Amino acid sequence: MHASQGRSAGLGLALASAFAFGGSGVAAKPLIEAGLDPLHVVWLRVAGAALVMLPVAWRHRDLVRSRPVLLLGFGLLAVAGVQAFYFAAISRVPVGVALLVEYLAPALVLGWVRFVQRRPVTRRAAVGVVLAVGGLTCVVEVWSGLSFDVVGLLLALGAACCQVGYFVLSDQGSTEGADGVEPPNPVGVIAYGLLIGALVLTAVAQPWGMDWSVLGGSAAMDGTDVPAWLLLVWIVLLATVIAYVTGVISVRLLSPAVAGVVACLEAVIATVLAWVMLGEHLSAPQLLGGAMVLIGAFIAQSSTPRTPSGPVASGPGTGVAERPDDGCADAEGELSSGRAAT
Questions:
Q1: What is the pLDDT of residues 180-198, one digit of tens each?
Q2: Residue 74 in contact with residue 132, Cβ under 8 Å?
Q3: pLDDT for residue 54
Q4: Is residue 41 a contact partner of residue 211, using CB atoms and an 8 Å limit?
Q5: From the centroid of its chain, how far is CA 190?
Q6: What digits encode the pLDDT tens for the residues 118-145?
Q7: Quick one: where is this thing mainly located (predicted)?
Q8: Which CA distances in Å does 260 have to 59, 64, 167, 247?
Q9: 58 CB contacts (<8 Å, ≥6 apart)?
Q10: In the Cβ-directed half-sphere of 203, how many Cα atoms lie within 13 Å?
């Protein structure tokens, strides 16, 4: 495939992934309001997607021996953690607010790099963090005191923290190791992440106590009744399987940095869909704050170093170039790896 055609295809897949992920909350919230516990909806989503991806997991079963820690971390954080916290959050706060708070993850990644790993970050990335945090204050409307749902906000922050783990794990698994081991197949990692996440959520959610009759009825979407099973199919196939796979392929065709920037559209898509399909209207300050969060995330995620004239990048499509004694390259590489898992 020609380079320009590959970029065009990658951009299209990245947009498709953002749309697919962005619709997860819109489909899940009616099920929650119909009587399903948020954890049960998460379990249905992850377990259903794990069954669909089971043949892929079998094909890449060698990952169990070669990358067990990566698979376990991916399953616990990028799948079980992000999904559980996000779905619990949207049961208490609007979908747009929950996702915008979750998009503080790029800022939190920079905090991890700067204060935990003690590596420098660029001034541009720091500006992105400040802008995102400032936007969050508008999203939750802090000037109104504690009238917003504190628990819902904390749950959304929990999703953001789990997403940080996903970014860090994606960075560790995206390049060839020092022992010459090839990087793991990303679709295989997703398949095992879903399987592990399903096992963990089975123990936590205890689906045997779920009200299965809800799936045989209907759920209301802004006054319109929709079959509950149709919403479940939407969540499993479109918002999970297709969303993850198109996202991963787009990273391969573009770069983690570019695909990550396109992924910022997910929050916009989710907010618009919630507005149109669920009737969740955000105030003008919240919309302004949401724009600030997205712009801040855009700046932070796109703050990749320039390619030097000397040694070239640490891997194809990583968006990270090797520079002697420059910690910023490594720090920004972690930020730009992977995509959101909502």
A1: 557 778 889 889 999 999 9
A2: no
A3: 95
A4: no
A5: 12
A6: 777 778 777 877 787 788 777 766 566 5
A7: membrane
A8: 28, 27, 10, 9
A9: none
A10: 7
Question: How many CB atoms sit inside 10 A of residue 17's CB?
Answer: 27
The two three-digit tokens of residue 316, written as one number: 């194809």
Q: How confident is the model over 113-119, as a mean pLDDT? A: 76
CA 72 to chain centre: 17
163 close to 334: Cβ distance less than 8 angstroms: no
What pairs with residue 224 in β-bridges? Answer: 221
Is 158 within 8 Å of 85 (Cβ atoms)? yes
Burial class (CB in 10 A: 0-12, 13-18, 19+), 1: exposed
What tokens appear for 324 in the block? 């002697």
- Mean pLDDT, the chain, integer: 76
Q: How far apart are CA 2 and CA 16, in angstroms?
A: 21
Given a contact cutoff of 8 angstroms between Cβ atoms, the answer to whether 30 and 221 are in contact is yes
